[in-house]
Fold:
Amino acid sequence: MSFVSEFMCASLVNYAGFNTSFVQSTNSSKKCDLLIDSYFIEIKTAIDDFRYGTKIDDDLICELHGTLTIDKIVNALGDALQKENLDLVMLNVVSTSLGMGIVKYRKNNSLSFADAMRRAIEYVNQSKKDGRYLIAVIFSCYIDDVSSEFKVNSFIVKYPLSHENYQVDNDCLPSDCIYI
Structure:
């Protein structure tokens, strides 16, 4: 289990101004990791194989699409969909080529984590009406090499869900579903 991501997310979300608490799990049901205000959040951590973590696409959208549609990520999101009362997924991509790509391409121009969370909650509320999307906040953290400040880059993805079984449809992630 990856407790570091859960604690990091709880801290980041609390710092962004949201009420945060951990959800107590039981052996009988699959529970989400965090309760943020009244929203149930599942936290997933992506880790690339070493050879993938060192290769970054020339374009951030290509890197996003490539990473966010690999089976490992889609399966992790599918696992999140099995959680009771799921509202939102937070995906930590620090240890991936996408995490490095975000730093490379969005270092000085990124959606703030607080804004990403607020927008994601708006999308969650919209999605609850039609059930067509799984909303995910994708984030990466780093220490700025100039200012030595801790930085968080984040963006939102609206994953289309297949209507037959409400699973993530990894064949259908149009670029207009990615909000940077």
In short: Residues 3-15+31-179 form one domain. The chain is about 35% helix and 25% strand.
